[in-house]
Structures are given as structure tokens and as C-alpha cells.
Amino acid sequence: MLPYGRQSIAETDVEAVTRVLRGDWLTTGPAVGAFEAELARWAGGVPCVSVTSGTAALHVAYAAAEVRAGDEVITSPLTFVATAATAALLGARVVFADVQPDTGNLDPDAVAALAGRRTRVVTAVDYAGHPADYDELRAVADQAGATLVADAAHSIGAAYKDRPVGSLADLTTFSFFPTKTVTTAEGGAVAAADPERHARAARFRNHGLVRDPAEQREPDVGGWHQEVHEFGLNYRLPDVLCALGISQLRRLAGFRERRRELVSRYNVLLRDVPGLTLPAQRAYVSPSWHLYPVRVRDGRRREVYDRMRAAGIGVQVNYVPAYWHPVFADLGYRRGLCPRAEAYYAEELSLPLFPDLTDAQQDRVVETLAGILV
């Protein structure tokens, strides 16, 4: 089965991991800081906190934004459920705003219509690797007195109006799952420009521990002393995975370029295939394509999905609207809430896209898809 996404592991990646395995630190060692520094270079110089997954990154970001019970978090339903679930786990009420019909990104006008005095956070999702409209979302968040969060699980290395993802929101989360552009096997990170938010994120990912005597309530107990002022969790990313991340980040420019080439080829090869809508791109955005999301019109998405899979081509659907999951339905969320997101989902199909995809494999995907639709 040709997958829709997969990691690209080179000998340099293996050597980087092996060096750590032969060293003194498997976790909480020097590779962690080195990885965070390398990631900050891609995030416009914004300091980063590494964590164990993209889901952990969202949880940490919401904690750093001081999301509490009774707060509202406005986000897109066209995302993996973790974007909303991690806010709900902190006691927030998740408010789903509709998306732009072409990019699938959060619609600033829809957010503005829902924002109010309880809005603590507005979370955009850079769907497929195409950054959201951050200037408009910033204006809405500032008007509401809310923190702007970017779920950039798809968009590492991308830019919006020549500004890198990581520097566009108050807090930005990344994911390094194997299907993503850069992988640490499992892993994630939070970029936070504000020192206080960065400190809260760093504490939350490490049980909430306070080790600096200047910040402790009883600083003179002894050198072993540590305190917990607010609860946190163990979301530490170990050195062995950070070493892989450092090596992968050094290949990020090449990964992005190959994905761009493949997207350009898809655009040319599929432009005349009937019944398809190809992904949109804003002129002021430089995407970092994680997905190639086509729209299959005329109610044929299920048929095309099944026939492509039967032909050994691992297409995927991204995503079931978050509030369609029973956990949200049981909380009273109903279908029809965000009609544009639901219409997007009804047609969406992600074609294989990863750096090691060959032109011949891509041609096979196109020929199979065209043969079904023509």
C-alpha cells in the first residue's frame, strides 16, 4: 500500500540517534536544548519548549495561556480532535467557528461573530500546511482580549506575509509525528515569545517543578529542594528523540522543496480531471505542504476513497469535524454547526505526499484517480 504520508530517514538521522545512545544522556540532557535552539531558528527566533507530542504541545500551550474552567476557546472543527480536546480537558468550553471554503482555514469573520468576554484563546489551524490569515485573527483576538494560538502541526517552515510560522501567534504548537514534515518519531513543541508564557510552558511539561531558589517559597531547605506551585505533567521529550529532530531540521529545507515540487506536479497533472477541486493558495502565503487535499465533487468521495484503497493507494480523509465525535455530541454539540467545514469534509481526500514519493509513484496516483473520475 502506497501511504499518504511517511517519514524520511537518512543515515545522518541514524548516526545522530546512535551518538546519543552511546553517550551519557538519554533524556534531560544537552540534545534537548540544542533541538529547541535549532527549532527556534525556524520559528523566527521565538524560544521553544519541546514536548512528547503535538497533542502535548496543545495541552501545554493552553496551560501557558492560563485556560481555566469557564473560559471559552474558539477554534476550527476541521482539525484532529486534539486541538479541541486538550482545551476541554482544562475545563474550557470549546466554541467551533466555521472555515474558509477554499483553504479550510479558520474564518476570521466567523471567529469575530462568536468572540466575547469569556473568550480566553483563539486557536487557528494551518490546515494542510497553508498558514491561516493571522493579521485578521490577531485583530479579532486583541479585540476580545484573547490569546492567539497557532496549531502549526502541518506548517513548520511555512511563512505568512514573509513572517515565519512560530512568530505569528502568541503561542505556536508543532507536531513531529512520522507523517509530518519533520519527525522525532513522537514529539512536539511550543513556541512562546513572552517570557512568562515560556516559563509556564516549561514548568507544565516538567510536572510544574520550580527549581530556581529565587522563585521558591522555601528556598533555603537544601540543594535538593524543588517545589510544585501548579500542577503539571511529564511531557519531556528525551535526548534520543531530540537528536533525531536536530538532524531532521537540518533537512527541512530539502523536505519543503520536494513537497513543493510534488504539489506543483499534482496541480499540473490534475488540473483537467473532472469532478475535482484542487487546493487553494493565497498569494501572500508560502505554505509548507503537509497534505495535498483535493475535493471530490458530486458525492463521489466515498467511492473514490474505496477504489483508490483497493488499488493499493493509501488516500486519507482529513478530518472528521471535531464536534462530530461522540465525546462532543454527548456534550450537546450538533451537526450543522459549521456548514462550510462540514461541506469541506464531505468532499476532502488527501493524496499521497511525502519527500520520498517518486515521480513514477505520483504518476500512478494521478492515473488511478483520473481513471476513476473520467
Notes on the structure:
The strands form four sheets. This protein has a seven-stranded mixed sheet with strand order 1-9-8-5-4-2-3. Strands 7-6-13 form a three-stranded antiparallel sheet, with no helix packed on it. The protein is α/β, with parallel strands linked by helices and 374 residues long. The two termini are 23 Å apart. The mean pLDDT is 98. Helix content is 37%, strand content 15%. It has helices spanning 11-21, 30-42, 54-64, 82-89, 108-114, 134-144, 195-204, 239-249, 252-270, 301-310, 326-329, 339-347, 359-373, and strands spanning 48-51, 72-75, 93-96, 119-125, 147-151, 159-160, 163-164, 171-175, 188-192, 209-210, 227-228, 276-277, 285-286, 292-296, 348-351. The chain folds into two domains: 11-249, Type I PLP-dependent aspartate aminotransferase-like (Major domain) (Aspartate Aminotransferase, domain 2), CATH 3.40.640.10; 252-373, Aspartate Aminotransferase, domain 1 (Alpha-Beta Complex). The protein has 13 helices and 15 strands. Helix 1 runs antiparallel to helix 8 (239-249), helix 2 (30-42) runs parallel beside helix 8 and helix 3 packs across helix 4. It comes from Nonomuraea polychroma. Belongs to the DegT/DnrJ/EryC1 family. The active site is at residue 180.
